[in-house]
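Changelog-linked ticket: zinc ion example.
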Amino acid sequence: MPQHHLSCHCGAVQLDAELDLTNLAVCNCSICGRVGAIMAFVPADQLTNIVGEDHQTDYQFASKRIHHAFCRVCGVRTFAHGPGPDGREWAMVNVRCVEGIDANTLEIARKFDGKSL
Ligand SMILES: [Zn+2]
């Protein structure tokens, strides 16, 4: 899979990740619906060259399993992370933060009904 570079709006938070842009999801839960992220799921240990984690503010709610971190300078969420069904830590990468692509041209493979959970 191709390697992609992601950044928040102000550039304080940056990272690299191999992302499958043919298997993207959106979610209608109370936070994803508001954020508007288009997500690619990857094991968290596959995120590399992470810069600016000290600029992130963590946000958790309800079961507090997922870390909905965002850049405290510009407010953009580049990725969230939390335990997956396999017990591993997974990242939900916001492909709207991938540099060099037009996220509006991407196909959404899955619409996750998080609102019903
Ligand atoms: Zn930022």
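Closing comment: Example verified and attached. The chain has one domain: 3-112. The first helix runs from residue 32 to 35.
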